[in-house]
Design goal:
The complex is a heterodimer of chains A (113) and B (184). With 113 residues, chain A is mostly beta strands. Chain A is built from no helices and 6 strands. In chain B, the strands form 4 sheets. In chain B, strands 1-9-10 form a 3-stranded antiparallel beta sheet. The model of chain B has no long low-confidence stretch (mean pLDDT 91). The chains are: A mainly beta (113), B alpha+beta (184). At the A-B interface, strand 1, strand 2 and strand 6 of A face helix 2, strand 5 and strand 6 of B. Strand 2 of chain A pairs antiparallel with strand 6 of chain B.
Chain lengths: 113, 184
């Protein structure tokens, strides 16, 4: 059956990951990466009313409760996290970056459709 | 999504050609919806409430899946907005779900490389897109100074964009996926 199926997203450009209407997914893997000394990236929740939040679900940023891993460091960096992040059609995921984005990998399970 | 084998590259795309990716995607979604809607005239797709979920109609003993009498497509039970059960074919469910993934063509962001995620029953469950702002974005950074994220206009002016059109063999409607390859 479809519930319980794995879904994976892999890419090299900033992305939007959005389940279809009526579909719910629990993300278990969230990885984003950048390269360069002044680069960082993270994934954050977004609302369908085109609301961009500052609620970071994976990766690093300045003003939140997580550190910005790659600021003032040279070379490439990766922000990774194994977690449980619910997303659906209304509340879904975007990636944010500063500098040079190099890629992402998200994966999870379908929990409702 | 089927693995893509063949593609054509435009190594000097214009901004309008890049922006047309979203227009082409929206046309594909609307055309696919109309094609499926016309194929199943007995169903009023506008009254389906997808939030109620869907269930593949399968005999629990024999595991035989119920099929549509004329198209032989697997059938699902969904609910309408009055919470009455309705039977629809798998491609109707996909067309409805796709309709929710139309792209905003006026938001100053170009979404590209639309990729449809399918479940084990080959019904669409999600869409992922890559995206880039058309204009540069300057990020205020107290620690290291302002940082500029290059927008599509800048990449184009530096001739660092390839518009790659993949052959149309994705699962639905032969959509020809269009990808922007940016030299970061």
């Amino acid at each position: 059956m479809a519930i319980g199926d794995q879904v994976h997203w892999l890419g090299s450009s900033p992305t939007t990951i959005r389940p279809s209407s009526g579909v719910e997914v629990i993300l278990k893997e969230c990885n984003t990466s950048t390269t360069g000394s002044n680069s960082f990236t993270y994934a954050y929740h977004r609302h369908s009313a085109n609301t961009y939040s500052n609620v970071i679900v994976a990766g690093g940023a300045y003003s939140a409760y997580q550190d910005k891993p790659s600021a003032n460091q040279s070379g490439s960096s990766k922000n990774g996290m194994m977690t449980s992040i619910p997303i659906n059609y209304t509340y879904y995921l975007n990636t944010y970056y500063q500098g040079s984005y190099t890629g992402h990998k998200f994966a999870g399970y379908i929990t409702k459709e | 999504m089927a693995k893509c084998c063949n593609y054509t590259d435009n190594t000097s795309p214009t901004l309008d050609q890049c922006k047309a990716i979203e227009v082409n995607w929206n046309k594909f979604v609307n055309d696919f919806f109309k094609e499926v809607d016309d194929k199943y005239p007995d169903t009023d797709l506008t009254k389906i409430d997808l939030d109620q979920g869907s269930t593949l109609l399968r005999n629990s003993t024999t595991l035989i899946v119920e099929k549509h009498p004329t198209t032989n497509k697997p059938m699902y039970r969904v609910f309408d907005i009055d919470l009455d059960p309705v039977k629809i074919a798998n491609e109707e469910l996909s067309a409805l779900r796709l309709k929710g993934h139309l792209q905003d063509v006026e938001d100053g962001v170009v979404h590209y490389n639309m990729e449809i995620s399918l479940n084990g029953e080959r019904v669409i469950v999600a869409l992922s897109t890559a995206e880039i702002t058309i204009a540069d974005v300057i990020i205020k950074d107290d620690e290291i100074g302002d940082v500029t994220n290059k927008g599509l206009n800048t990449f184009l002016s530096q001739n660092k964009v390839i518009l790659r059109t993949h052959e149309g063999h994705m699962a639905y409607g032969g959509y020809e996926r269009e990808e922007l390859i940016l030299d970061w």
